[in-house]
Structure formats: structure tokens, C-alpha cells
Amino acid sequence: MGEFEWPVRVYYEDTDSGGVVYHSNYLNFMERARTEWLRALGFEQDKIRSEYQLLFAVHSMQLTYKRPARFNDALLIRSRLKKAAGASMQFEQNIYRGEELLCEASVRIACLDAESFRPKSIPNSILTEMHSDG
């Protein structure tokens, strides 16, 4: 399973009064990258819900902040699917400014039934694309 990259520009709204990216906005950047990864594989999350009755939700995360991102920085979010099986996915996501690592995260995603919010296995048609990188 390869790596997916998604560029993000830091806007003023992403920062605190000192021009530093507020810590929770790193989570937003990573969420966008995972959404765009699914889109690149040919899956829109609203269609996954309507066609498969499936939702993806963050189960847990572990983050390490290395360096601050600042207003107007061009960032690159690198996402790598480490494992996808059953009703969960495990991602490694890192945020870079150029070659400088700013934040690293391990993200576990739960796959849930859209109605009951109980764990539901990832359909084989989606798993196949995830494992082949589209």
C-alpha cells in the first residue's frame, strides 16, 4: 500500500493570534487528506453511506507535534494506509513543510453501519481498491 499526498495552505483562520497553527487544525488537515485519498480511489463518502450504509469515524489517534506550522505555510500531508481489514483501518499520517516534519500521527478509523453505528466490515469492493492504491 502506497502513500497519498495532499497539499494544504495554512490560512489565517487556521492560526492563533501569534500566527501559529492551532493544534486541533492539524486534525482537520489530516481528515481532508484521508477524504481526498478515498476520492482518488473513486469513493465519495456520501455515496459510501448511501450505497453501502457505511460510515468512517475516527476511533483513536496518537499525535506528536514536532515543529509549528505558521500562517501562509504550504504543507504536505502524507498518508499511508498501514492496514485495512474487518471493520477498521490504520493510517500513518505526517505533515511536512518542505522536508521538515511538523507533526506525525497514527490514526485508527472505525467502519460503522450508518444506521446503528455498530462496527461493519469494509466491503470487498472497497478493500480491493484500498489495497491496490486505485
From TrEMBL:
One Gene Ontology MF term: fatty acyl-CoA hydrolase activity
One Pfam family recorded for the sequence: 4HBT_2
Organism: Methylophaga thiooxydans
Alphabetically ordered keywords of this record: Hydrolase
Family: Belongs to the 4-hydroxybenzoyl-CoA thioesterase family.
Protein name: 4-hydroxybenzoyl-CoA thioesterase family active site
